[in-house]
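Translate structure to sequence.
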């Protein structure tokens, strides 16, 4: 899986999107922002969450923090983060490279409205050194994401 699965997914559904591979780690929001020369908020981080017995992916802007009350209301139950091993087993991507593309099996994807602050965001692309630049609306369209408001307002 990982980078190869994202590359194959994009080649099939969005061949105009280019994956950017860097020589430095982009596993954290700070590293990704520095590597791509953008502010941290432009990094689209993908959170792997459990809600009851189901797993969902939530893409939020890099400086956003999950609001537990909003998340519980939006997802219909208490939300918890998956552990690193479970994340990789379910998404096929390592922590720091998780994205809503190239998944081994369908997982519900949600995009937080915080992403709409930008015309272009930078999600990972299946590895800790790869990413792509994409409009938030297009990312949601390609992944079949549902828009939600589950983050605290940026400070």
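Result:
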């Amino acid at each position: 899986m990982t980078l190869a699965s994202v590359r194959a997914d994009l080649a099939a559904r969005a061949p105009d999107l280019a994956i950017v591979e860097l020589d430095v780690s982009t596993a954290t929001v700070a590293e990704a922002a520095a590597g791509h020369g953008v502010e941290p908020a432009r990094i689209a981080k993908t959170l792997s969450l459990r809600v009851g017995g189901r797993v969902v992916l939530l893409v939020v802007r890099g400086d956003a923090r999950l609001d537990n009350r909003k998340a519980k209301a939006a997802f219909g139950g208490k939300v918890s983060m998956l552990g690193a091993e479970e994340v990789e087993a379910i998404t096929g991507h390592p922590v720091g490279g998780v994205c809503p593309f190239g998944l081994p099996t369908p997982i519900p994807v949600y995009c937080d409205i915080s992403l709409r602050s930008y015309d272009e965001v930078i999600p990972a692309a299946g590895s800790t050194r790869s990413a792509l630049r994409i409009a938030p609306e297009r990312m949601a369209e390609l992944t079949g994401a549902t828009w939600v408001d589950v983050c605290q307002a940026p400070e």
